Amino acid sequence: MIVFLNGKFVGEDDAVVSVFDRGFLYGDGLFEAMLVKGGQPFGWNEHMERLGQGIEFLQLTVPFPMDGLRRLASELIQRNQMPEGILRLTISRGITGRGYSPKNAIRPAVVMSLHPAPVLDRRKMPRWRVITSSFRQASNDPLTRFKTANKLPQILARAEADLAGAQEAVLLNTDGFLAEGTTSNIFWVQDNAVCTPPLPTGALPGITRRFIIGLCVKLKVSWREKRAKADELRRAQGAFLTMTSMGVVEIESLDGCKLQRSPLVKKLWVAYRRLLDSFP
Length: 280
Known about the structure:
Mean pLDDT: 96
Strand content: 25-35%
Largest sheet: 9 strands, mixed
Helix content: 25-40%
CATH topology of the largest domain: D-amino Acid Aminotransferase, Chain A, domain 2
Shape: globular
Order of helices and strands: EEHEEHHEEEHEEEEHEHEEEH
Radius of gyration: 19 Å
CATH superfamily of the largest domain: D-amino Acid Aminotransferase, subunit A, domain 2
Distance between the termini: 24 Å
Structural class: alpha+beta
Number of domains: 2
């Protein structure tokens, strides 16, 4: 596999960063992962908008313009001959003196890599078993608006899911409300409306989340942001997750409790598949 690293295209074995890089030492950086279809990154502008907001918030230095990164991503896709896959872009602050201070950071690391996308059955919506994690997401934390390179709560929550034989874990926030999955946003159907946690609960402003809300508007499906406890998810008329890699995934069960199924979930799954099929 060929990897883009700091302005060069190199083999994956040669794609290395310093052991003193702050991304390695502290998770001091950001990343975005996007679906590649037909040789083009899906939702590039939306991903770059979120990345740009994160860069400004963390005050990172990026030695490439955003439009330049777009051209480099296309070249990486062509070099690897991978028109379908997952593109990951990672930016770290770089190297500083020892300690937490980001002062005088040098040589920020900019990395792009490609990975195979999950193979999906176009005729059948994926359904996952989900657990409620014991780990909590901070509520009203501005860092949850970005995909930072430090994801320890999500990693530990996913380890709990693996141990329980589940495909995903849901994190509550420090106030006890639903926040997000480890790599997904949460939606449920209540009173024939599609609900999702508001961003201040600790939910990432997911790109697929944004597209699904747009599809609700387009299809005239009622939707709203709602603070809710896990019990409300168990009593829902249906529930699903959204993520870049899988799109829409129906929640089959939560903590071993089978959930109801709603035709609205399938309707949005079909609509999102059609949106992807129309790209590029």
